[in-house]
TrEMBL record:
InterPro entries: Aldose_1/G6P_1-epimerase, Gal_mutarotase_sf_dom, GH-type_carb-bd, LacX. GO terms for molecular function: carbohydrate binding; isomerase activity. GO terms for biological process: carbohydrate metabolic process. This is Galactose mutarotase. CDD domains: Aldose_epim_lacX (cd09024). It comes from Clostridium paraputrificum. The lineage of its organism: Bacteria, Bacillati, Bacillota, Clostridia, Eubacteriales. It holds the Pfam family Aldose_epim.
Length: 290
Protein backbone atom coordinates (compact mmCIF):
# COMPACT_ATOMS: atom_id res chain seq x y z
CA UNK A 1 0.00 0.00 0.00
CA UNK A 2 1.21 3.48 -0.93
CA UNK A 3 0.63 6.53 1.25
CA UNK A 4 1.22 10.25 0.64
CA UNK A 5 1.88 12.98 3.20
CA UNK A 6 2.30 16.65 2.42
CA UNK A 7 2.47 20.10 3.92
CA UNK A 8 2.78 23.47 2.21
CA UNK A 9 6.41 22.84 1.18
CA UNK A 10 7.07 19.09 1.03
CA UNK A 11 5.38 15.92 -0.15
CA UNK A 12 6.51 12.37 0.55
CA UNK A 13 5.31 9.00 -0.70
CA UNK A 14 5.95 5.84 1.34
CA UNK A 15 5.10 2.17 0.93
CA UNK A 16 4.28 -0.64 3.32
CA UNK A 17 6.52 -2.90 1.21
CA UNK A 18 9.88 -2.58 2.89
CA UNK A 19 8.52 0.40 4.82
CA UNK A 20 10.33 2.39 2.15
CA UNK A 21 9.97 6.04 1.23
CA UNK A 22 9.56 6.44 -2.55
CA UNK A 23 9.51 10.20 -3.04
CA UNK A 24 10.69 13.40 -1.40
CA UNK A 25 9.52 16.32 -3.44
CA UNK A 26 9.57 20.10 -3.11
CA UNK A 27 6.10 21.51 -3.76
CA UNK A 28 7.58 24.93 -4.47
CA UNK A 29 9.13 23.88 -7.77
CA UNK A 30 8.15 20.20 -8.08
CA UNK A 31 11.77 19.04 -7.77
CA UNK A 32 12.17 15.36 -6.87
CA UNK A 33 15.10 14.67 -4.56
CA UNK A 34 14.74 10.91 -4.03
CA UNK A 35 15.75 8.32 -6.63
CA UNK A 36 12.80 7.00 -8.67
CA UNK A 37 13.70 3.30 -8.43
CA UNK A 38 14.28 2.76 -12.15
CA UNK A 39 15.41 -0.91 -12.23
CA UNK A 40 17.73 -0.19 -15.15
CA UNK A 41 20.07 1.19 -12.51
CA UNK A 42 18.72 0.17 -9.06
CA UNK A 43 15.18 -0.86 -8.15
CA UNK A 44 15.12 0.58 -4.63
CA UNK A 45 14.56 4.09 -3.30
CA UNK A 46 15.64 4.13 0.35
CA UNK A 47 15.61 0.63 1.86
CA UNK A 48 16.00 -0.03 5.58
CA UNK A 49 18.84 -2.37 6.47
CA UNK A 50 17.85 -4.78 9.28
CA UNK A 51 18.90 -6.96 11.08
CA UNK A 52 22.21 -6.76 9.20
CA UNK A 53 23.96 -4.02 7.26
CA UNK A 54 25.79 -5.19 4.17
CA UNK A 55 26.69 -8.85 3.81
CA UNK A 56 27.47 -11.60 6.27
CA UNK A 57 30.16 -13.99 5.05
CA UNK A 58 28.72 -16.53 2.59
CA UNK A 59 25.32 -15.00 3.48
CA UNK A 60 25.45 -17.06 6.68
CA UNK A 61 25.80 -16.21 10.37
CA UNK A 62 25.67 -18.10 13.65
CA UNK A 63 23.60 -17.66 16.81
CA UNK A 64 24.23 -20.04 19.73
CA UNK A 65 25.98 -22.47 17.42
CA UNK A 66 23.17 -22.63 14.84
CA UNK A 67 23.65 -21.31 11.31
CA UNK A 68 21.13 -19.00 9.62
CA UNK A 69 21.06 -17.33 6.22
CA UNK A 70 20.16 -13.74 5.33
CA UNK A 71 20.45 -11.87 2.03
CA UNK A 72 22.51 -8.71 1.77
CA UNK A 73 21.12 -5.97 4.04
CA UNK A 74 18.72 -8.37 5.77
CA UNK A 75 14.99 -9.04 5.67
CA UNK A 76 13.24 -5.71 6.29
CA UNK A 77 13.67 -4.27 2.80
CA UNK A 78 11.89 -7.30 1.27
CA UNK A 79 9.13 -7.59 3.90
CA UNK A 80 5.60 -6.24 4.01
CA UNK A 81 5.04 -3.82 6.88
CA UNK A 82 1.69 -2.88 8.45
CA UNK A 83 0.39 0.65 8.83
CA UNK A 84 0.57 1.41 12.55
CA UNK A 85 -0.42 5.08 12.81
CA UNK A 86 -0.98 8.02 10.49
CA UNK A 87 -1.78 11.71 10.97
CA UNK A 88 -1.21 14.89 8.98
CA UNK A 89 2.43 15.18 10.01
CA UNK A 90 3.69 11.60 10.22
CA UNK A 91 3.15 7.96 9.33
CA UNK A 92 4.49 4.83 11.05
CA UNK A 93 4.88 1.35 9.58
CA UNK A 94 5.63 -1.75 11.66
CA UNK A 95 7.17 -5.15 10.99
CA UNK A 96 6.71 -7.77 13.72
CA UNK A 97 8.47 -11.13 13.92
CA UNK A 98 6.67 -14.14 12.48
CA UNK A 99 7.26 -17.86 11.99
CA UNK A 100 8.90 -16.98 8.68
CA UNK A 101 11.29 -14.39 10.14
CA UNK A 102 12.26 -16.72 12.99
CA UNK A 103 13.54 -19.22 10.42
CA UNK A 104 16.19 -16.75 9.21
CA UNK A 105 16.52 -14.44 12.25
CA UNK A 106 15.94 -16.19 15.60
CA UNK A 107 14.74 -13.21 17.62
CA UNK A 108 11.31 -11.78 18.43
CA UNK A 109 11.16 -8.11 17.56
CA UNK A 110 9.08 -5.18 16.43
CA UNK A 111 10.61 -2.76 13.92
CA UNK A 112 8.86 0.58 13.39
CA UNK A 113 9.65 3.21 10.77
CA UNK A 114 8.24 6.71 11.22
CA UNK A 115 8.35 9.45 8.58
CA UNK A 116 7.71 12.91 9.99
CA UNK A 117 7.24 15.92 7.71
CA UNK A 118 9.34 18.99 8.46
CA UNK A 119 9.05 22.46 6.95
CA UNK A 120 11.82 21.67 4.49
CA UNK A 121 12.42 17.94 4.71
CA UNK A 122 11.66 14.68 6.49
CA UNK A 123 12.75 13.02 9.72
CA UNK A 124 13.13 9.23 9.53
CA UNK A 125 12.98 7.35 12.83
CA UNK A 126 13.72 3.66 13.38
CA UNK A 127 12.52 1.97 16.57
CA UNK A 128 13.40 -1.60 17.50
CA UNK A 129 11.53 -3.25 20.39
CA UNK A 130 12.69 -6.48 22.02
CA UNK A 131 9.67 -8.79 22.29
CA UNK A 132 11.79 -11.82 23.21
CA UNK A 133 12.67 -13.40 26.57
CA UNK A 134 16.39 -12.88 25.86
CA UNK A 135 18.60 -10.16 24.48
CA UNK A 136 18.16 -9.65 20.74
CA UNK A 137 21.04 -8.88 18.38
CA UNK A 138 20.93 -6.67 15.30
CA UNK A 139 22.48 -3.98 13.18
CA UNK A 140 20.40 -1.29 11.51
CA UNK A 141 20.88 1.34 8.86
CA UNK A 142 19.43 3.15 5.89
CA UNK A 143 20.26 3.26 2.18
CA UNK A 144 18.54 6.35 0.69
CA UNK A 145 19.38 7.21 -2.90
CA UNK A 146 19.18 10.83 -4.02
CA UNK A 147 18.86 12.22 -7.51
CA UNK A 148 22.18 13.45 -8.84
CA UNK A 149 22.11 15.58 -10.80
CA UNK A 150 19.27 17.26 -8.91
CA UNK A 151 18.75 19.90 -11.58
CA UNK A 152 18.31 19.45 -15.31
CA UNK A 153 21.23 20.56 -17.41
CA UNK A 154 23.84 19.50 -14.85
CA UNK A 155 25.79 16.26 -14.60
CA UNK A 156 27.09 14.08 -11.77
CA UNK A 157 30.53 15.67 -12.18
CA UNK A 158 29.08 19.07 -11.32
CA UNK A 159 28.29 17.91 -7.77
CA UNK A 160 30.23 17.12 -4.62
CA UNK A 161 29.66 15.78 -1.12
CA UNK A 162 30.37 18.29 1.63
CA UNK A 163 30.78 17.39 5.31
CA UNK A 164 30.09 19.99 7.97
CA UNK A 165 33.55 19.45 9.50
CA UNK A 166 36.96 19.07 7.92
CA UNK A 167 38.03 15.45 8.23
CA UNK A 168 41.21 13.41 8.37
CA UNK A 169 39.39 10.20 7.54
CA UNK A 170 40.42 6.90 5.95
CA UNK A 171 37.96 4.59 4.22
CA UNK A 172 37.45 0.92 5.08
CA UNK A 173 38.34 -1.27 2.10
CA UNK A 174 35.98 -3.88 0.65
CA UNK A 175 36.92 -6.95 -1.35
CA UNK A 176 35.16 -8.14 -4.50
CA UNK A 177 32.63 -10.09 -2.38
CA UNK A 178 31.45 -7.03 -0.45
CA UNK A 179 33.32 -7.94 2.75
CA UNK A 180 35.81 -5.73 4.55
CA UNK A 181 39.46 -6.65 4.22
CA UNK A 182 40.44 -5.15 7.57
CA UNK A 183 42.61 -2.62 5.76
CA UNK A 184 42.01 1.11 5.37
CA UNK A 185 43.13 3.68 2.82
CA UNK A 186 43.83 7.35 3.45
CA UNK A 187 41.09 9.41 1.85
CA UNK A 188 40.22 12.79 3.37
CA UNK A 189 43.18 14.93 4.42
CA UNK A 190 41.96 17.95 6.39
CA UNK A 191 39.13 18.31 3.88
CA UNK A 192 35.35 18.20 3.86
CA UNK A 193 34.80 17.97 0.08
CA UNK A 194 34.46 14.85 -2.08
CA UNK A 195 33.98 15.63 -5.79
CA UNK A 196 31.49 13.28 -7.41
CA UNK A 197 32.27 11.18 -10.46
CA UNK A 198 31.53 7.74 -11.82
CA UNK A 199 35.11 6.71 -10.99
CA UNK A 200 34.62 7.54 -7.29
CA UNK A 201 32.81 4.24 -6.71
CA UNK A 202 34.89 1.99 -8.97
CA UNK A 203 35.93 -0.09 -5.93
CA UNK A 204 32.46 -0.14 -4.31
CA UNK A 205 31.22 2.04 -1.45
CA UNK A 206 33.23 4.59 0.49
CA UNK A 207 32.81 3.61 4.14
CA UNK A 208 33.77 5.87 7.03
CA UNK A 209 33.79 5.16 10.76
CA UNK A 210 33.43 7.67 13.61
CA UNK A 211 33.61 10.88 11.63
CA UNK A 212 33.73 14.25 13.37
CA UNK A 213 30.94 15.46 11.11
CA UNK A 214 27.27 14.80 11.77
CA UNK A 215 25.98 16.22 8.48
CA UNK A 216 26.73 15.70 4.81
CA UNK A 217 25.36 17.62 1.83
CA UNK A 218 25.04 17.14 -1.91
CA UNK A 219 25.88 20.49 -3.52
CA UNK A 220 26.93 22.05 -6.82
CA UNK A 221 28.54 25.37 -7.60
CA UNK A 222 26.60 25.44 -10.87
CA UNK A 223 23.16 24.85 -9.36
CA UNK A 224 20.89 26.34 -6.70
CA UNK A 225 19.43 23.15 -5.22
CA UNK A 226 21.03 20.94 -2.60
CA UNK A 227 20.15 18.54 0.19
CA UNK A 228 21.65 17.77 3.60
CA UNK A 229 21.46 14.57 5.63
CA UNK A 230 21.97 14.83 9.41
CA UNK A 231 23.27 11.45 10.62
CA UNK A 232 23.94 12.42 14.25
CA UNK A 233 24.64 9.36 16.39
CA UNK A 234 25.34 6.89 13.58
CA UNK A 235 28.87 5.47 13.95
CA UNK A 236 29.28 4.38 10.32
CA UNK A 237 28.56 6.13 7.05
CA UNK A 238 28.56 4.65 3.56
CA UNK A 239 28.55 6.55 0.27
CA UNK A 240 27.69 4.56 -2.83
CA UNK A 241 26.50 4.53 -6.43
CA UNK A 242 26.76 1.78 -9.05
CA UNK A 243 30.27 1.52 -10.46
CA UNK A 244 28.75 1.48 -13.95
CA UNK A 245 27.34 4.96 -13.37
CA UNK A 246 23.83 6.12 -12.45
CA UNK A 247 21.93 9.39 -11.99
CA UNK A 248 21.85 9.05 -8.19
CA UNK A 249 24.12 8.73 -5.16
CA UNK A 250 23.42 7.06 -1.82
CA UNK A 251 24.16 8.42 1.65
CA UNK A 252 23.90 5.55 4.12
CA UNK A 253 23.96 6.04 7.91
CA UNK A 254 24.61 2.75 9.71
CA UNK A 255 24.83 1.11 13.09
CA UNK A 256 27.09 -1.79 12.06
CA UNK A 257 28.48 -2.92 8.74
CA UNK A 258 29.35 -5.93 6.57
CA UNK A 259 31.47 -8.79 7.88
CA UNK A 260 35.25 -8.76 7.74
CA UNK A 261 36.47 -11.37 5.26
CA UNK A 262 38.21 -13.38 8.00
CA UNK A 263 35.34 -13.24 10.54
CA UNK A 264 34.42 -16.69 11.87
CA UNK A 265 32.70 -15.81 15.14
CA UNK A 266 29.13 -15.75 16.39
CA UNK A 267 26.74 -12.94 15.50
CA UNK A 268 27.10 -11.50 19.01
CA UNK A 269 30.82 -10.99 18.34
CA UNK A 270 30.33 -9.18 15.02
CA UNK A 271 31.61 -5.59 15.05
CA UNK A 272 28.80 -3.06 15.39
CA UNK A 273 26.07 -5.48 16.46
CA UNK A 274 23.67 -4.07 19.05
CA UNK A 275 22.52 -6.22 21.99
CA UNK A 276 19.10 -5.06 23.21
CA UNK A 277 17.88 -6.20 26.59
CA UNK A 278 14.52 -7.86 27.31
CA UNK A 279 11.69 -5.28 26.98
CA UNK A 280 14.27 -2.83 25.67
CA UNK A 281 13.80 -0.21 22.97
CA UNK A 282 16.41 1.13 20.55
CA UNK A 283 15.74 4.30 18.58
CA UNK A 284 17.72 6.27 16.03
CA UNK A 285 16.86 8.85 13.40
CA UNK A 286 18.26 10.89 10.57
CA UNK A 287 16.96 14.06 8.93
CA UNK A 288 16.98 15.03 5.27
CA UNK A 289 16.49 18.71 4.45
CA UNK A 290 16.24 20.25 0.99
Amino acid sequence: MIYTLENSNISIVASTYGGEIHSLKSKKDNTEYLWNGNPEYWKYHAPILFPIVGKVKDLKYRVDGKTYELPQHGLARISEFNLLTQNKESITFELVYSDDTLKVYPFKFSLQITYTLLDNGVKVTYTVNNLDDKNILFSIGSHPAFMCPIEEGLSLNDYYFKFNEKENAPIMLLNSHGLFTGETEDFLDNSNIIPLSKELFKNDALVFNNLKSNKISIESQKGTKSLTLDFTGFPDLGLWAPATGAPFVCIEPWYGHADFADFEGEFKDKEGVISLEVNGKFECNFIVTI
